[in-house]
Design brief:
By secondary structure, this protein is an all-alpha fold. It has one domain. 67% of the residues lie in helices and 0% in strands. The radius of gyration is 12 Å and the shape is globular. The termini are far apart.
Amino acid sequence: MFLAGRGEEARSFLSIDWCSSPFAYTQNWVHNQLYLGEADERAGDTASACAHYAKVIERWGHAKRRSVTLDEARAHAGKLGCPVTIQ
């Protein structure tokens, strides 16, 4: 739903407990944080968007292989002027 431009509808699915656990399904959780950040950014909630992007950056900030998701979170965070803790 999110990728189809229906961010607000997707929010309830992205926030489901089994999707929102960083330990159960790490890759899904990280993608969900990115999508929630993008939805918040579109809605004008910069603080919440920055918080979601920070979770992605914190979780995968030291990845040894390149992460497109991480790159995208960093780009959005930079555009919004979010404080980024992991370079």
